[in-house]
Amino acid sequence: MNLDSYDWSHIGASLDDCGHAVLPRLMAPGQCSDLRALYARDDAFRSRIVMARHGFGAGEYKYFAYPLPTLLNDLRGSLYRRLAPIANRWNGALKDAVDYPLELQDFTRRCHAAGQTRPTPLMLKYGPGDYNNLHRDLYGEHVFPLQATVLLSRPGLDFTGGEFVMTESGTPPPRVDIVPLEQGDAVIFAVHRRPCAGLRGTRRVAMRHGVSRIHEGERYTLGVIFHDAA
């Protein structure tokens, strides 16, 4: 899991252009299996959400408890360090006064001082017929505008269907993107909005993400969110 091997100028350009960017083979198959096995351990998580009970879709997910597993904790900090400059550039383009510190621990302290103390990294589990409605992961006043998802299962072998979907509105016409992922790939994407250059200056484009219906098998994903929850 070497983030230095990726072209971060290209990743930034992709995020600017369409609100998402893929990091191929971020995790090895063994790392994916090790993380997936944690789902059966209740002591690793703080809560379990059955999506249908809340109108979120169908399937379930669990929020990790602190302390996070070492692999997840290291990934979260390393990704944040590379994404904070992009987030600050976006805020500058949108004339948003919020400035993000360059280290996750400093941003976490900001969240906790505002009462956002619950960890938000999560693992999602989908079975046949399950899906995730289009949504935004907003948990309080302090929101980091980028997040990541890592596919832990093998498409075509462990499951079929279950494509990662992103939509944007505020551009004529609205756009829908399907983002193909293989096991171990990560997609970085906008949590709720991104700047978009137009003829009359920079506009805010509203972003949502979800997962299409699973046809067969089970699909596990790791969600890496950087702001904690109130």
Word description of this protein:
The protein has a single domain (about 5-225), classed as Jelly Rolls (Sandwich). The protein is about 25% helix and about 35% strand. The protein contains 4 helices and 15 strands. A 7-stranded antiparallel beta sheet has the order 1-11-7-15-5-4-2. It is globular, with a radius of gyration of 17 Å. It starts with 7 loop residues before the first helix and ends in a 6-residue tail after the last strand. The model has no long low-confidence stretch (mean pLDDT about 95).
Break the fold down into its secondary structure elements and pairings.
Layout: H1 8-18, E1 20-23, H2 29-37, E2 45-50, E3 57-58, E4 60-64, H3 70-93, H4 104-113, E5 122-126, E6 131-135, E7 146-151, E8 159-161, E9 164-169, E10 175-179, E11 186-190, E12 193-198, E13 201-211, E14 214-217, E15 219-224
Antiparallel strand pairs: 1-11, 2-4, 3-6, 4-5, 5-15, 6-13, 7-11, 7-15, 8-14, 9-10, 9-13, 12-13
Keywords:
six-stranded antiparallel sheet; 34% strand; 230 residues; single chain; Jelly Rolls; alpha+beta
What is the name of the CATH architecture? Sandwich
Please trace the helix and strand order, writing H or E for each element: HEHEEEHHEEEEEEEEEEE
Q: According to CATH, what is the topology?
A: Jelly Rolls
Shape: globular
Number of helical segments with 4 or more residues: 4
Outline the low-pLDDT stretches.
Answer: none
Q: Kindly provide the name of the CATH class.
A: Mainly Beta
Please give the number of β-strands.
15
- CATH homologous superfamily placement: q2cbj1_9rhob like domain
Count of structural domains = 1
Rg for CA atoms: 17 Å
* Sheet with the most strands, sense and barrel status: 7 strands, antiparallel
Share of residues in strands: 25-35%
Distance between the termini: 31 Å
Q: By helix and strand content, what is the structural category?
A: alpha+beta
Helical residues, percent: 10-25%
